[in-house]
Amino acid sequence: MDQEIYWLSCRIEDLSAAIRQMRWYFAEVQELRKSLAPIWNDSCSLEMAKRFLNPMALEAEASLTELERQVVGLLDCVAALSAADNALSEAVGAAEQIDNLSGEVQSMFRVLDGLLSDVVKEADQALAHISNAETLIAAANSAA
């Protein structure tokens, strides 16, 4: 996943560089328009600027600003994606630890189950010996 995040970061940086280049071209065009304004001052040029060039300049500026805002949003998304990837890696590691510990606990329970069976057998034998001893004591008391 790290490679995909890196790839995405590089594409966003490419986009950011393209936007910076467009902004530079836009500034150059606006400078050229300013320098031509004294020459293009007839009614047709003024009307064309009013109807087309000025609105296009405003829209271009707004578009570039919005694209820059989108790049910031994309960078935030990449940061969140990276954090989520890290959290997922930690969760996978924790799950593996839990799985390992679960196996150890199961082994311990198998050992404890075996020990419990041994204890139950020993307890049954002890009860049998006690019962036998009580019988012998009762017989000895009767004989005396």
- Structural class per helix/strand content? mainly alpha
What does the main sheet amount to? Answer: none
User: Please, how many helices?
Assistant: 2
Order of helices and strands: HH
**Termini, distance in Å?**
90 Å
Please tell me the total number of domains. 1
Overall residue-averaged pLDDT value = 95
Helicity range: over 70%
Instruction: Pick out the low-confidence regions.
Output: none
Range of strand content = under 5%
Overall outline:
rod-shaped
CA radius of gyration: 43 Å
E-strand count: 0
Organism: Methylovulum psychrotolerans
Protein name: Chemotaxis protein
Would you mind describing this structure in some detail?
This is Chemotaxis protein. The protein has helices spanning 2-36, 43-143. It contains 2 helices and no strands. It has one domain (2-102). It has 144 residues and is mainly alpha-helical. The mean pLDDT is 95. The longest helix has 101 residues, at 43-143. The protein is rod-shaped. The relative contact order is 0.06.
From the structure above, extract its key features:
single chain, 144 residues, 2 helices, 0% strand, Chemotaxis protein
